[in-house]
Records
---
Amino acid sequence: MNTEIYLDANATSPVLPAANEAAQSAMADCFGNPSSSHAAGLRARALLEATRSRARRVLGAPTGRLTFTSGATEGIGTAVLSALCAVRERRAAGLPCGDLLLYGATEHKAVPESLAHWNALLGTGLTLQALPVDRNGRHRLDELRTLAPRTAFLCTMAANNESGVVSDLDGIAAVLADAGSDALWMVDCVQALGKLPLALTSTRIDYAPFSGHKLYAPKGIGMLYVREGAPYTPLMCGGGQEGGQRSGTENMAGIAALGAVLRLLEEGRTFRTHTQLSAMRERLAASLRAAFPGIEFNAPFEYALPTTLNFTLPGRSGKALLDLFDAACVRVSAGSACAAAQAAPSHVLLAMGLPQARCANAVRMSFGPLVDDAFIDEACIRIARCAQALLAPPPAACPVTGSGAVSARPAPAPAAGEPVPCDLDAKGLARFLDTHPDALLIDVREACEHALGTPSLHGRAAYSLPLSRLPEHAAWLCRETRPLVFFCRSGKRSAQAARFAQELGHDTVGHLAGGLALLTF
């Protein structure tokens, strides 16, 4: 169970070994500045342009601008700035121009935030409006027909990061054509690379941002396609790199790594096909249905990427499910990783018309096109184990219930001036246990998480006492004289438990800061 089953690829992906090797090689052997005219610089320039040429072939973009960026957020910001500068110029010249900045209601927050920022900063005074989606998560083309004549700039996605729903881009283009709209159009293609066919030059799309870390490249590298003839304003100015389109010395290690991924895409032998990926998703879905009767999938598979499942389990908290899967070393998420810290229902699912409780407790599983059958096999086994753990009784060995209890012994008095420990990292935990050999380790995760296995911390067994049960055992905590060390998955629940014990007057108490997630076993 210590082997990690990573099912959060829509948030980020592991770095492909070939990409890592390419990055290391670039840093060791091709470290020159591609703007330099000496041999080292020329080698770097050759790598840079070879990667750009490969990207053009993979994206179906033989013409137009193709600029390397730091990622999708920069690409989105550049596209928005370019479009709004063009709109401002048209209005200043007295030319007809729409008054709407129209964006899909399920867009990543980077889009409306960037639109609002540049609209205010440039003083364009346009109205931001969300384009509704239907129950399937696809854009309402009837609404677009009504709004197209007023639209100056349209922003949609190729595929949604939370639901996996694939947009009807051909339908959107047809509506714009029928309306005779000259609106500029950005399509967020972050989730499309390696999962959907791309032929950008043959489309009406003006701007298409990409992010390498969504497909096995490192973080910090991306691309922006701009259709030939579409307006462009640099977001970053300075030394004139990237043909004056994006200043700043190029990230050669990231570009080399991205190039390695693009090479595998172009060769077409490494990544799984759409049919293979669909079969893998069906296997995961079948295991989820068997494990959790009543499960509700939040997006229809026929309209979604074959690598994404979004579901809700009625009567179960999404947070509790994430903790459960994490205890089984299965990494899943609740919606967008960028919004994971915000305790709010998914705006994507709300826009699709799902009930608020269902949106608030949604869980996303996503995998990349490199997974194999063995990975899916193990994921299905872990899913079944998680379901079994939900039914497992609390562990018998608990000092509170008396079953398996150990007799209390006085804790050794701390040395003069020794601070009372509270936040313990891995090394601090080892020192604390050496100093206090009779310390009691208490796992404050829920019983179902504990049932999936608790690691031995420095050879010491731990008792299970969920945080939710601490108040009812306050009397025991008051009587207990041994040092206490609480731990959980992330350190949040254990910090609460430590504070609770200290408030009860326990003078030697600590918790594992950062939780089990930061320990290696």
---
Amino acid sequence: MSFHDSVVYQVYPRSFRDSTGNGVGDLRGVIEKVPYIASLGVDHVWLNPFFPSPGRDNGYDVSDYRAVDPAMGTMEDFEELVEALGGHGIGVMVDMVLNHTSTEHEWFRRALEGDKHYQDYYILRPARADGALPTNWVSKFGGPAWAPFGDTGLYYLHLYDLTQADLNWRNPAVRAEVADIVNFWRGKGVRGFRFDVINVIGKSEVLLDAPPGTDDRAMYTDGPDVHTYLRELAAASFGRDPGTVTVGEMSSTSIEACVGYSDPANHELDMVFSFHHLKVDYAEGQKWTTMDFDLPALKRVLNDWAVGMQAGGGWNALFWNNHDQPRALNRFADPGRYRVESATMLATVIHLMRGTPYVYMGEEIGMTDPAYTSIGDYVDVEALNAYQELLTQGLTQEEAFDVVRAKARDNARTPMQWEPGPGAGFTRGTPWLRPANQDQVSVEAEERQGRILPYYRRLIALRKQYPVVSEGSYEPYALDHPDVLAYQRHHEGQHLLVLCSFRAYETTIEVPADFQDSRVLVSNYDDEPTWLASDGADVAVRLRPYQALALLVSCPVRSSLQTD
């Protein structure tokens, strides 16, 4: 089976299911829910990091890559999970955090002790002649990207948290260690790997300041060496297993770079995550702001990536939600009045598009951001740092909290809501992060009489049943429509027209008359489409609030109404 017809389910283990009652999710909790995961019809489960970690960045600060954090369980638990999922034909995708290690990792500790071998595992530089930091780069979590390396007079680079020291991929010994880590997990039966912020590993030997007025990310992102390192890693590890599925998280990237990373001819990765479509509610490009999302910009970004990746032979990993993003329902739709319609519409957009869909736990039941009321409800280091920085910029406490409440990563990290009640069926104890609205939204409620969960199961099945979904070409449609995101898919005489309204009111859109005699492949409303008279060879269809409608025909159809 090609990964083109696959769907990946993402599990944030800390928040999925607690088997012990200590309030923190664990691997045995995931094992308990394998039957549920299998019922979705997914092909792979991506597990966020479960390695030993001080937890400064919720597991993305790894202190041992070849072990299981005792808080998450044991290696035997992991092996049992691989076997349990494998019994349902589901593979495990492990999260590889290989741009940086925790400063508590043995390599960093030995480097601090003066071991020259391990000092070359990290990016160490002296201060400049005037005592200034080695470069003007800024950490993605706030503050300078350099910190003192003990009392050596050197500084170490940390593009993320102070406790996440960047590895020196220019060192062949580091690249050999990385390949050995991947091979360790291959030996445990893992045939899927997600590589965290992998496109920032290619720093130059000489590190330069970002010129005034420019973004310092351009100084270390998508460097040419990234392609070389990925090809080398593939040849030494996962590339030896034809069935392995790989995805790279690409930070501040470009279509051109991602075509290179995912073009099969390059032997690097199978697919890539990019995030430009999730920045259309960033005022002036800044995350820690609030604004209504820009629908024309969202349509343009999704279309540009679909067209560009297709033209270059690349492959997108499609998603709205993950552990680093607020819930898409709150950002792009109406979780209050139209939660069901909004959730199913958003799902339709990505599941029928060219690429591999990813479902983040809770998305399939319509979970929303928590209604937190205090900064003390949040635990994520990025959110807490941002709050303080916003106060420094002159925002009031209320204004700063409103921004954090809209953009915090913890919004997606609240516990999976299995059933009503204080612990949401996640734990018998006190959850590490307070659930959102489990008395209204839960797996139990969806299984009993819900509409979102069955709809997700239907979409996942369609990708396997219809090659036009998994293999079809992509063509934009009606890009200038003010309310509707639309596109076509084509494959061996089958033509699929996907129409998704992002509005809380009725709207109409003209479509080629050929589709009036089409079959409704899927819709998030039960009634038949409402067709209206129109001019020329076209007809119009009326869409209800947040309606998703996919129409399938098996005959020649003319090109899109508008593609520019």
